[in-house]
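Render this sequence as a predicted structure.
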Amino acid sequence: MVERLLKLGEAKFSSLLSTLLVLMSLGYLGAYLKFAKPRGFGGDFYAAMFTSGWWDGTGIFYGPIFVFERWLVNWIPALATIQFFAVGSLFLIILSMILTMKIGKFLKRDNLVCLMVWTFNSYLYYSFSVVSNPELIQLFFLILMWWGLTSKNYTVAWIGLTIAALTKLVPFFLFPILLLFFSWTGLLASVLILIVALVTLSVGQGESVLSLVSQTIGMNTSASASNTSSPQPDSEQFLGLSSAIARVLGMQIGQDFRVVTGISNFIILVLYLLVITVAIKVKRLNVFIKHNVLVAYIFALFMSLLPILHLSQVHRHTFLYLTPVWIALRIVYVQDESLERSGKLLRLTTWLFIAYSFLPIYFLDLYNVDNLQGLHFGSGFLPSSIMLTEPIWVNLVLIISIVCYGVTKIRHTSSISQKHS
C-alpha cells in the first residue's frame, strides 16, 4: 500500500514536493514560535556554550569541534550568537537530507520518502528548537560516511566518522564499520585529522595533548561533574534504557539503581556485540549482492544503536540519529528478492516510524512525569501505556528487527550455498 501511494506520488511529484516543503517550513516556523522563541533556544547547547555554569571555556567539553565553536563565540560574539547556531542547525538538517537523497541517486520515489521522513520527524523540529548543534553536526558527517562507503570513497567515510567522533565521542563505537571497509588512506587521513585537532587544541587551550586526550575520553573532564550517570526516572529529559526500566519498575530517586544500571548496560553490550557479529557475517557471506544495499544495511544496523549507546545520557534530541535509518532500510527492502520478506520489512518500518516520531509526543510534551511516582508498569492502563510510549522501546524493537532481518538473510544465503555444494 505504501509503495502504491509512492507510485501515485511520483505521478504528482511537483505538487507533492511543494506540499511537503510547505509542511516542513510550517513545522519549523511553529517550533520557533511555540518553543524556541519563548525560551531563547534554551537547551544543553546554550547552557554549555553561552553560560559559565556548565563550562568555563577551559579544557575540553563534549569534543574538539565544540571547543572550536567556543573559540568562534569568543572571537566574534556579535555574530556567533545562539540565533547564528540555530540557523546553522537548519542548514545542517537540510544538507543532511540532500546528502541522503544523493545516496538514493535523487530518484523521485526515494526523494519523496526522504522528504516525508524529514518532514514528519518530530525529533528534528525539537532539535532545532533547542539547537542540538553537536548532534546535528554528527548526523551530517555520519551520513557523509554512509555516502563515502556507498560510493566506495572510503577515505571520505573515514573522515566523516572521525569528525563525528571529534564532536562527541559516542560515534567512535561505529568504528567497526570502517574496519569492514578498510582503507589505509582513510586511516591515515583520520590520524592526521586527529593529530591536527589535538595539537590545535593544545596550543589554543594551553594544555598538554595527553591532558586533552584524557578529557576527551571522559577521564578528567570538567563536564563529568555536571553529567548524571545514574537513571533519572523522575525526569522526561532522561530517556535512556536504565531510566525507562526504572520507571517501569516504579523506582524513585534515592533508591539503589546499581541493578537496573547493570541490567541496562548488559543489554546494550549484548546488542552491540550482536550487531558487530551480524555485520561481519553479512559481509563475509556476501548476503547482499549489490554494494549499496550491503552498505545501507550495515549503516542502518550500527546507526540504530547510537541513541541507546548514550547509556543514561539519552535525551530527546539523541533520537535524531535514527533519521537516516529509515531511508537505509528502504534501500534494503526494495532490493530484496523475496516480496514477502520485503513487504514485512516495509510494513514494520512504516509502523515503527509512526511510533518513533508521534507516539512519545504525549509523554514528552503533555504528560507530567511526576504522575508516575509511586507507580509501576501494571499499576493502571494510563501509566502503563505512558511507560510503553518511551522512544527507547521503539529503538530496541528497531535494533532487534534489523538484526533479525540480517539473520534471516544469512540463513537463506547459507542454505543456498549448502544446496550448491
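Summary. Residues 86 and 131 are 5 Å apart (CA to CA). The chain has a mean pLDDT of 89.
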